[in-house]
Amino acid sequence: MITSSEIRRKYIEFYKSKGHAEIPSASLIPENDPSVLFTTAGMHPLVPFLLGEKHPSGSRLVNSQKCIRTGDIDEVGDKTHHTFFEMLGHWSLGDYFKKEAIAMTYEFVTEYLKLDKSRLAVSVFAGDNDVPFDEESFNAWRKLGIDEKRIAKLDRKGNWWEAGGPTGPSGPDTEMFYWSDNSTPAPDSFNDDDDRWVEIGNDVLMQYEKKGEGNYLPAKQKNIDNGTGLERLTAVLNGLDDNYQTDLFLPIIIK
What we know:
By secondary structure, this protein is an alpha+beta fold.
């Protein structure tokens, strides 16, 4: 069994080996941000730097951030969703972009963690009237060996991120999924309605700046924001389909 502490350490070690500086987990109560009650993601404390301010630790960062999120509270209570969770994350602040980020994500899970490649699938932004199809990410995954049947093209609900409000950074994202059912082989194609495909990581590709509804301009600083769920990653690496059976929860439940 691989523990959550080992996985956290491996993630940080891997990205430090790629030139990322480790930064501490920020407070769950956001500083100088009255718009939200809690820190909801690893990128939350980094917003000024995603907008162009220089971070004292450089343009490549990594950490493990404790988060509280209630946006998907209706799903909390299943095997993979939580209000309090830990998000492994790394960032490129105007440094590398899509191809490099996707290659690192794939290397980490397949070479460093040794996850079964035959059980992986990904999704990319399909495009709409405002923003085109993310062909660059699609091609990057295909070059790494992901079969086209396992590369889903999803709409804004599935593969788009933007800051709240009428302006701010935004862009498509590309997500990685792992087939969690040990009793059946992974299907040839990906279906995001099947809960057995568990999202384990997400690269947000901040290439636009929103300037009002439906108006997106190329961003002056293009960023990468990766979020990888420690609870889900711990589960799939141990052959589990239930986060509550991992060492993050089970000792508490037993008590």
